[in-house]
Amino acid sequence: MDRKTLKRKVTELMFMLVNEETESEDEEEEEEADFTTGMLAAILEQNLQKKNPQSRHRQKHYVQNVVANFRIDEFKTFFRIGRVSMQCLQEKICETCIQQNISGILCREATGGSVQKPLPDRILMFLWFMSSQDKYASIADRFGMSESTASCAIRNLLTFIHDNLLKRVIVWPTIAEQQEIKDMYNDLKGFPGVVGMIDGTHIPITKPSERGVDYYNRKDFYSVILQAVVREDLRFIDVFAGYPGKVHDARVFRNSPLFLNGPALCRDGHLLGDSAYPNLPWLLAPFRDNGHLTNSQIQFNYVHSSIRSNVERAFGILKGRFKRLKHIDQKMLRTLSKQL
Predict the structure, then answer these.
(1) Which residues face 280 on adjacent strands?
(2) CA-to-CA distance for 70 and 118, rounded, in angstroms?
(3) Which string of DSSP letters, residue by residue, matches 91-131?
(4) Cα separation, 141 vs 157, whole angstroms
(5) Residue 26 — very low, low, confident or very high, per pLDDT cuts 50/70/90?
(6) What pLDDT band is residue 330 in, cutting at 50, 70 and 90?
(7) What are the angstrom distances between the C-alpha of 314 and each of 179, 199, 295?
(8) What 3-state class would DSSP assign to 267?
(9) Cα separations (Å) of 205 from 13, 129, 325?
């Protein structure tokens, strides 16, 4: 039944009830008739709205009309990477999907619903998600889609990048590259054998729905730990994330794959870590300052600290670029580590 027919029937019924009210001399019957008329009109109007729902207003063609006209600096301000880097990410995604025959990312099979957004649009939406603290509703409105569609697209890309691109992008330096790093620090700092720097950082999160007390760290907030190794140019070459914030850095390290693979990866070199890490043949921690350090030990700690500060700078740049890491509003532990 269409809108016009429903309205006509409502009018006829109201007219009949009004006539009955006019003929009736009993006040109680008149009040009952008025109540019945109002209830009937409300029910029919509600059914009418259900059959003809109003579409929600959303922005349209934001990517085509706005993003396409961004200057180089404007694009990087909003998406935190340049257009060239964004295109490289898109090429890696396409290449991986074709090589591994992965469906659902480049395109999906028609299911009778709305047409899937192009991959560049979904990548831009994913970058906006990572570089801001906006909620799904706000991001969905900006890119002209429903909240559920935006959430699904972002999570699919997160899972795809975590499962397929992480090991292709975050790679350990080759033997030749390790030798270059060693030579550089030996020439600049007089500190031989340095391959990289290791440290951990806390990523603030909402209290998890499971075992929340384990994620309450000594700094009085809920977090997970991101352990990383960086090289001289601040590139990440190893990451391990997901342990509760209450866990000590040394325990996280001993439970990470790096603890077992470190000797083979570093070969005759070593990593530099702070005093939370153990001293190993391939990992050097500073001397503990007990008030009786020799001049040589003090100098060692000074140079050690100046080199190791690179990993802290890398963490600062990472959190500054992708503001989502300043607080992850995610209570499900299964998907939490994929956002790190």
Answers:
(1) 283
(2) 19
(3) HHHHHHHHHHT--SSS-----SSPPPPPHHHHHHHHHHHHT
(4) 19
(5) low
(6) confident
(7) 21, 10, 30
(8) coil
(9) 58, 16, 9
